[in-house]
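Reopening this one. Same input as before:
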Amino acid sequence: MAESGRRRADRHCSWCGRRLAASGRQGRPRLYCTQSCRQRAYERRGAVQRSGLPEDAVVLSAAEIADLQDRLFQLRCAAEDVGTAAEDGASTEELRKMAAEVVSVAAELERLR
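Same output, byte for byte:
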C-alpha cells in the first residue's frame, strides 16, 4: 500500500551517511549501517560528554570545515550564474540546465559526511 502518495524518505547512517537498505521489519528503525559505525558514534558521544560540550554540539575537523566552505562557495557561484544568465536574457532551456546544476550542488552540500 502506498504511503499517502508520498515517497518514503531514504534513511542514512547517522555516522557515515551511507544509505540504509530498507529492512522491512517493524520496530525502531536502524540508525547505523554497521556495528563499526555504531561503535564510533558511541565513542564520539563519550568524548563529547567528557569534553563538557553540549550534547547537540557538532564537531568538525579543519578539513571538514574547509570542504564545507568550498561546497558553499560552489553553491553561491552556481546561483550567481543563474542570476547573471537571467539578466542577460538566457534561453529557458539554458536556465533550466543551470537551475539543475544549482539543485545538484545543493543536494551534494546536504551531505555533511
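So the earlier flakiness isn't reproducible anymore. For the record, The chain has a mean pLDDT of 84.
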